[in-house]
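Deliverable D4.2, example record:
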Amino acid sequence: MVYRITFLGTGGGRHTTMYQTRCTGGMLFEHGEPSHFLHIDPGPGALTQMRRIHYDLGRTESVIISHAHPDHYSDAPSVIEGMTRGGWVRRGSTYGSPSVIEGVEGLGPCLSPYHLGLTERTVSFRPGDVLDVDGMRTEICKAKHSDPCNVGFRFDTPYGTVSYVSDTDYDREIGEQYKGSRVLILPVTTPHGNRIRYHMCTDTAIEMVEQVRPELCIFIHMGIVMLRHDPAGQAAMCEKATGVRTVAGEDLMTLDIGEQLSLGKADTYPDDLWIPHWAPDMPEGKK
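Output generated by the structure prediction step:
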């Protein structure tokens, strides 16, 4: 049974996104038997990174979007078109917070009615909801962010809970939701000594990791200042303070989740004329 996360992008925040200092393409989560593919927060860079690893978007079955900020959703319409074979095959699911699906307080909606209509179902979620995402139990957790609808996720696997916190301020209430997680994927936007609103820095990451006590913590959503201050060194600071294995994520890093947790790197291929075998056989011109 395969459980693998491919980190299509480990950057976050306005400036990292604008200049693609790191990609901001979210994560591909391969899970279950037979394998299902879930795309989490497909922001800028997702499509480019999937091409680099020759990933066929037609294999994706679900897209889940935490909130209505571009570094978490801007490639989603094209991902949905790929998931539905160019819009010709009605399949898959789109999950999103209310700001993503309906629009809230001037944020969103992030997806057009056309794109929402391509998939078999659309689900708007709130903290406390529990979803069945292609057979994987997914719990929706509260966040404290400038998008008031933002959430985090607990993905339950046979090998333990993998949690993706998404962008948030930290307090004990936020941390309590993630206790019992084996893997904590933590957006750490700024380094030690640089606290900003609505996001975490290395100092608050240390507090949360100390509270949750996962087996592995992975820093993602790294902003420009973080990238200029040695992300690996910041992760090492967290590991030294907590005793928890902590890694600064890298673009196209992979995490295999089984009896052991194994980090690797996705294979990449030349920029040739690769395209999935089904694409040339599909009719053109659908609007």
